[in-house]
Amino acid sequence: MIGFAIHPRQRAVSAEAVARFRDIPVANVSDCMSRMSAGGARLRPMHDGTPMAGPALTVRCRPGDNLLVHKALDLAAPGDVIVVDAGGDLTNAIIGEIMAAYAATRGVAGIVINGAIRDAGTLRQGTLPVYAAGVTHRGPYKDGPGVINGTIALDGMTIEPGDLILGDDDGLLCVPYAQVEALYQAASAKHKAELEMLAQIAAGKLDTSWIDARLAALGCETK
């Protein structure tokens, strides 16, 4: 049936690649992607702030229905990030405390819901990364349809199964599978440069001459 299927995942970023990104802020990676990709400002952390990184196990489901999300939890490998496009609808919660607890026992690295969650107080105190667009007490239906391991998009950010998903307090980012190594090199250098800048600020030695140079280059009139 079209729109109702479970596909095998063909590839996924390695655990070694995931580990290398854990200490790099999402903002640094985003800067190295020309600031052109993001999961949407509505998707916020609903947990204690623990950073998230792992290969995507994608789910597309009917708004308000979580049947395929339950199946994804059973299929998930340790370290996977389950990314659910539920249409951004906030009428019914897609997951809550019970499903999050089960995900933790499965070794899931995080859950992203383009939709709503419930049991927010409990999830907020937990270390399992959960990102969602909103909260409601109304529970989900379990009728389908949906697709596991298909291409999804969150606010224009395309996600293929096995791509690298990153999350921290600033939001979510997908690093395409084929670009992981190049982006790690660029983002690592960016992060190192920012740490050096913070050290210069602390020492009172930050060079801000670039500001006037930039203004002059843009033709800003000064008196």
Number of strands: 12
Count of discrete structural domains: 1
Number of helices: 7
| Cα end-to-end separation | 70 Å
Helix content: 25-40%
Indicate the overall shape: elongated
Q: What is the name of the CATH superfamily? A: Ribonuclease E inhibitor RraA/RraA-like
Q: Any idea of the CATH class? A: Alpha Beta
The biggest beta sheet, please? 10 strands, mixed
Strand content: 25-35%
Uncertain residue segments: none
Summarize this entry quickly.
The protein has 223 residues and is an alpha/beta fold. It has 7 helices and 12 strands. Strands 1, 2, 3, 4, 5, 6, 7, 8, 11 and 12 form a 10-stranded mixed β-sheet that branches.
Note down, in words, how this protein is organized:
It is built from seven helices and twelve strands. The protein is of the alpha/beta class. It has a single domain (4-186), classed as Ribonuclease E inhibitor RraA/RraA-like (Glucose Oxidase, domain 1). The N and C termini lie far apart (70 Å).
